[in-house]
Specification:
2 domains, 33% strand, 18 strands, 22% helix, six-stranded mixed beta sheet, alpha+beta, single chain
């Protein structure tokens, strides 16, 4: 099933707006939260509905249908698994038409026994992410009437694996640290390129996976912020900036982390691309209400007593919490990531808890960004910023794929 271009652009837009809030190490997935916002938009009214539609980038049309289509299409991608879950209190009357818009078999019951309900939701999160995320990110309370959750997990093996070796950067934030370095050499110079953007120059390295999912590493100028680098990378994916490929790079230092040198060899060897980077393992927790404008939830915060979702129930519950847990690991053999996003609703009038809170040498030996995307549709499945790579240890096991 093909993912519509309009949906890819909408998810990319949400990814870009989220990326603008990044200031430190993180991993996140707009593709993991987008369907939930679309389902909520179908049931919302007034300002909240308009804001949610703006957040998902679908000012008109049927957002629930687009969400169903996206989840079904992602679930058909090799190496990608998705799931949707809805749990409601047995005393909450639901609109049958809204529930019917969700996938079959997604509706469960909250018994009111917090310990048992938490255990059931945690088990769902662990099962749907192959154990990568073991807890539902949004906690239950006595007032929780509804939980809407989505899970996304992806794994891919590199078409050309890396070799592990100790790496000790001589400059930059990682100077003097012995890191788990990854190295490989190929003749595919077009895997690397340089983009000149309004915010600065960015080097992009494509690491191709065997399941149709690739990871793009992004190294910006040292003065650039994480948000600027990630947004520049997203703009490159969208065709907003021209990329000068490795086959056309001039000698010297044409981009961050790049050297193009003329070497002498005893044999007529073809040009090569030498890549040095680091292994990393990231976890992150996100309070979506802390960035409510990004996700179209401002009205849910500012007017919690109003009936927010009459399309879900005549009781029209209000947003209680919205959180995402995310993990990502990059190693010599491949990449894996998982996210669970949960949005809870409480009885109208219950106060909300707010939490503001030639030879081309490409070397990624200081903080950099990454985008994991489906190669054909260009759908970004996960994104993040790396500041604390794995240390080197003899016999260090690669990530389990």
């Amino acid at each position: 099933m093909r993912i519509p271009d309009a949906t890819v652009r909408a998810v990319s837009g949400l990814t870009s707006r989220w990326a603008r809030t990044v200031s430190g190490p993180t991993v996140f997935s707009a593709a993991g939260v987008w369907p939930l916002l679309a389902f909520l938009a179908t049931a919302a009214q007034g300002t909240l509905r308009r804001d949610l539609l703006d957040a998902v980038g679908l000012p008109s049309g049927e957002p629930a249908a687009a969400a169903r289509q996206l989840m079904a299409a992602m679930d058909e991608l090799r190496g990608v698994d998705t799931a949707l879950g809805l749990w409601t209190h047995r005393d909450l009357p639901l609109r049958a038409e809204w529930v019917a818009g969700l996938a079959a078999g997604t509706h469960g019951v909250l018994t009111g026994d917090l310990r048992a309900d938490r255990a059931a939701l945690d088990a769902w999160a662990a099962e749907r992410t192959d154990g990568l995320i073991r807890r539902m990110p949004a906690a239950l309370t006595d007032d929780t009437e509804l939980v809407l959750a989505g899970a996304l997990a992806l794994r891919t093996r590199w078409l050309r694996p890396f070799h592990e070796h100790p790496l000790m950067p001589e400059t930059g934030p990682w100077r003097g640290r012995e890191l788990l370095g990854l190295y490989r050499r190929s003749t595919l110079l077009d895997r690397v390129g340089v983009a000149d953007t309004p915010e600065g120059t960015v080097t992009e390295l494509k690491v191709l996976g065997d399941q149709g999912t690739d990871v793009h590493l992004l190294l910006g100028e040292e003065r650039m912020t994480p948000a600027q680098v990630l947004c520049a990378g997203l703009d490159v994916l969208a065709g907003g900036h021209q990329v000068l490929p490795g086959t056309r790079l001039p000698y010297g230092s044409p981009g961050p982390g790049l050297e193009v040198v003329r070497e002498h060899s005893a044999t007529p060897d073809p040009p090569t691309l030498d890549v040095t980077t680091v292994a990393y393992d990231l976890t992150a927790e996100h309070d979506l209400l802390a960035a409510h404008r990004v996700f179209g939830l401002t009205a849910a915060l500012h007017d919690p007593g109003a009936g927010q979702f009459p399309g879900i129930s005549a009781h029209s519950p209000g947003i209680g919490a919205a959180r995402q847990s995310a993990v990502a690991a990059f190693g010599a053999l491949g990449f894996r990531a998982a996210v669970v996003t949960a949005i809870t609703a409480v009885a109208t009038g219950v106060p909300l808890l707010r939490h503001p809170t030639t030879e081309v040498r490409a070397t990624f030996d200081r903080p950099f960004g990454f985008l994991a995307l489906h190669r054909t549709s260009r759908l970004v499945l996960a994104a993040g910023w790396v500041t604390d790579p794995q240390p080197f240890r003899e016999g260090y096991p690669d990530i389990h794929l």
